[in-house]
Amino acid sequence: MKTLIDSTHALIGGLAAIRRQFNVPEQFPPAVLAAADSAARRQPTAHADRTDRPFVTLDPATSTDLDQAFMIERSGNDLLLHYAIADVAWFVGDGDAIDREAWQRGTTIYLPDGRAGLYPPVLAEGAASLLPAVARPAVIFTTRIDGDGNARLDGAERAIIRSSAKLAYDTVKASDLPADFDELARRIEAAESRRGAARVDPPEQEVDALGDGRYQLLFRPRLRSEEQNATLSLASNIAIADALLAARTGLFRVMPEPDEQAVQRLRQSARALGLSWPEMETLVQFEKKLDPADSRHAAFMLAVRRASGGASYVPYRDGIVPWHAPMAATYAHATAPLRRLADRYVVRAALAVANGQPVPPEVSAAFEELPAVMARADARDGQIDRNVIDLAEALMLQGSEGTTFDAVVTDADEHGLRIQLCELPIVARVRGPGEKPGDRIRIKLTSADPLQRRIIFERAG
Question: Which residues form the RNB domain (predicted)?
Fold first, then answer.
């Protein structure tokens, strides 16, 4: 972790330049804002009253665009996860001004100094957000989790809910959560292990705003409460995907597994990092032993993520089972409709399928168009994230030219060495043959240019 004091407003200026470069929208067109104001006043008329149920939300403390609320109850030996998802489609009509703008954006864009929402704030942080102590329209997906952690969609309905608490990852206590929250997460994680899932979650490099012109650059590992909360979305998304696949419709999230050549390279990386990976042990089995708090393990987890290739969206096709290798399952995105365009359509399809109704033709048509739209949005978001990190790294090191640092090699390819500084949360490249992943080297900073968002190191000595 490292705090940046942006006394000259260089970071603010740099973030503004990133927004311009990637055409991050500064505001919504007047027609979209007017349509959103009108939509926010729309009263739910197709929803059951479930305001007596003890739903809660669990998110980062500062979040106001709340997609999900949940409650858990027992049914014999099974657990029923009632997962309420913001009913964005109640407010947004096909082809209206809000919808057309959302298709242009694809996702909510997050930067340290604010976000560019998928939907106007009056909806995303107001009428459609599952905020506490207010009635909100939602689609409740009920997923049955058996003793082995297998998930099956039991039903779906439009309903009015009233969340009783807005819980935060970093402050939540066990007593704040439903009684079976830990047990539900345990079952789902056990099912992941049995089917050979390998969700790789290395610490993320982030820039966070602290206020008063202060920012911090850090590697942020996921909190246990965040990991457990992710299992709720995981189980719901798998259950929804299975239901859609059985109905021969849907939009799925897919991701390939590393090929054999990539696995062999990973074995070399593990040896270089001093990690013991038995020859008879698969990559999935080995990953289960990794601890993201260990820098060597975290470096290997990053290598696995790079070797796996990117995730993408595909519509249903006859005879093809869409597969997400890290999940070891057929998987869909349905639980973040305030932040991802595709989820709104998956929610609509799953609601129809669960109630024995045909999927609306406009939803089926959208499934064919969404993969390209979401691919562009995902690529843009990744570029923005990388440029923000590059800017913060250059600002942190500006004025330190000539200083030497200890670093660990995390990867090596034809472009040189990828390194992670030992004293600072910085990842960079340096030219030089001979070293392998896991080797420690000394490097010297030769240039740190915030305007170009670029830092240059050379080998010391």
Answer: 47-356
